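Troubleshooting: if your tokenizer reports a length mismatch, compare your output against this known-good record of 427 residues.
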Amino acid sequence: MLALASQPLLSIGDTAMIGHLGVEPLAARAIGAAIIGGIYWIFTFLSFGTTSLVGHHHGANDFKACGETYFHALCLALLGGIGVASAGLLFAVPLYQWMGAAANIVNEGVPYFRIYIASAPFTFIFFASVGFFRGTLDTRTPMIIAFLISVTHLLLDYGLIYGNFGLPRLGLRGAAIAASSAQLVGAATCLGIFFFSPSMTAYRAVKWRISLPRLRPLFRIGSDLAIRTGALRGSLVFATSCAARMGAGVLSANEIAFQLMLLGSDVIDGLAVAGQALVAKYLGSGQKDTAFAMGKTLIRCGAVAGLLFGIAFLGAQDAIVSFFTNSTDVKLLLGAGVILLVALFQPLNGIVFVLDGLLIGARDTRFLMWAMLIGGLGIFVPISWMSLHFGWGLTGIWAGVGALMSWRLLTLLYRFFSRTWSAVQNV
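Known-good structure output:
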């Protein structure tokens, strides 16, 4: 359930270490992270789509189909990763310029971005592997691998950013090398477990060749989720570009607020992961009422978890901001209502993320795609644009985040209680 629970903590630790290098490295990292996150989140369909399909087959006790789905997901991960890495290396400078970065931020960030994006194949292999493990209801293995990745990343961060452990002091470039190395460790561990663990024997009894019938479901779910996630991340990238045009201090403050929001949403997402895997299994075995009852329980749990995060953010606001930055300007920006908005969103996030995971598990991805296109491009992007041009500043951007989350909450609650998702058959 907590397969990626360490990832938000990793991102926060990485941001904090870079933040103490100064405002410019943090701003360069913020733009690179926004672009990389936008690309990588699109490819999370490799995880979510694989979980849904493998979970459905696992519920029907078809272990061969589980293994074949994983093999095809790995093929897509490798091809997609090579394509993304190649494009990132080639277009790094134009991407930073398109985001509105100043010349000094471009010079600082492009080497970081190129080193980081080169590890895309390893990251995508990890995504597909997490989907497979979750689909078979094995949440412990990806959780352990995620913590292995995080520990490797943070130790190399501390060594390569500051020159500790006898390693060279490389600053922002060291952070990128740490990230790429950690992703390589994660991908190698996932593949090693699948191909050599005795517990995986039943899933390995497959024909290792490409089959269109096995690819078609991944493309069907994957295209919906890629567009849906692309709309979300694209709107967030647009908001980051608006923040970049407001100055390095605003961009840095936005990055810190975003990392806090990710901390709450990604940890709560552990509930969504459980819901996704279980609803796929229940629907695969024809237990629709059980799936609906589980969804109602998850809604309550998500709301409570989000409320707890909101209280924690408000109670520890000063300590949290000081942990990330020493800049007085950045602290003042965050203290002007931004942290309050982030805290208030957390209960909404809790419900949104669990319902999002449940509908993905039910393969109701077409609905999610259209809802996100309207919310991200029709609501959040215009508010971000107006925040830049009408002087609303960072507070305006985060008010836009709140409007987006409110839209998602309303649409997801409507879809869940209509119960139409339990009858969706899109593969």
